[in-house]
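Quick log. Single chain, no ligands specified.
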Amino acid sequence: MCGRFALAYPRSSLINWYHAASMPEIEPRYNIAPSTDILVIRDSADGRGGAMMRWGLIPHWVKDTKKLPLLFNARAESLAIKPMFKHAFRRQRCLIPASGFYEWKLLPDGKSKQPFYVCAKDGPLSFAGLWETATVNEVTIDSCTIITTESNALMRSIHDRMPVILPPEVWDAWLTPAQQPDDILLSPLELYSSEQMQLWPVSPAVGRTSNQGEQLIQPINE
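-> predicted structure:
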């Protein structure tokens, strides 16, 4: 799964990285949690650009969110069949930039958990995502979710799921609004190479969403 991440790259770097025609003003954030607004990269008639969206997908047909679970993750294996996701999967795909993400490892005592920070060895991570626009109580809400898959070799000792990470060579195919066969859309959602990633233990302070700052991603002794 992916329930917490960081994004601390400058706006100018993100514009260059994604060849974006537009990008909102953003501040470094080191403890991004579901239900907050996050940066999404998508393609449109105006070109590729960034937008802020609520992290927690609200399907376009939902009129009342009270009974809707917080859909901050979507399993890659069921995107094409789950009613909550299949519309966005076929028509409204996006990238969600991250400097890195956090995952918690269950310790041998069976009770305590150690958080780890996971990032690329070079550049930002680009999570595969879906986005939707819904009108709830006459308010228009843009929202998104991060797609997850089974863990690669690096992550497997910590958790059995991880976000789908897309390399630059598949961005164009993933972001195109044009409809494509499901198998073509699913093919880029492969395991990201462990060799391109690194991780280290970090302070339990990241467990509190009110905690922010670069110190959250600094390595500590386990």
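Helices lie at 11-18, 86-91, 171-175, 182-186.
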